[in-house]
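Q: How do we represent a protein-ligand complex in a form that can be generated token by token?
A: Start from the inputs.
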Amino acid sequence: MASSDPHATSILQRCLQWEAIMLVGISDLISELPLETDCMENSGEVSLVLDAANYAAQKHATQRRKDAAQTPYVNHVLGVAQILAHEARVTDAFVLAAALLHDTVEDTDTTLADIAARFGHKVAEIVRQVSDDKSLPKETRKRLQIEHAPFCDRDAKLVKLADKIYNLRDLDRDTPIGWSQERVAEGVSPEMDAILDAIYRDHNLIN
Ligand SMILES: [Mn+2]
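Then emit the structure tokens for the protein with manganese (II) ion bound:
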């Protein structure tokens, strides 16, 4: 057995010594960290975003996307937050946290009160504005989304837009199981296409 092997014991002792040296090194490092400065504020923001990602992963744990690979649902909310951070250059931790949580109220047992208690009222307000009432029929939900969109605040509009962009890219990448080509085409209306073309043309993104 390893415990009766003098060679193994000396390796174990050396490992323990290294562990002790490492712990001393780490505690020295901690004492040097500027905990009362910006570092702490940033770490609060990073914590908020990571807590939101972890909460979303737990709440969506058993859910899958409708693609053939049955991608875990949480990949969607991570992707929406990534679109905001990378493509829209959003750095506001409240908006990124709300993006990560944007489907928890609509698609899990989470309530807005849960979100407010855990992540604060600012995040909960964004999530409220982007959540549909699932008890209503699909057509009514779609109509209400369009009617309410102009009255959403800027942060909620950003999350909604990133959500739509992610879903359209997903549709383009892989047809969801059980969806006909007609249903896929429903995802993009000719009116919306025309509006987007005009915006792209104004910004010289297309000719
Ligand atoms: Mn979504």
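The two ends are 75 Å apart (CA to CA). Residues 6-32 form the longest helix (27 residues).
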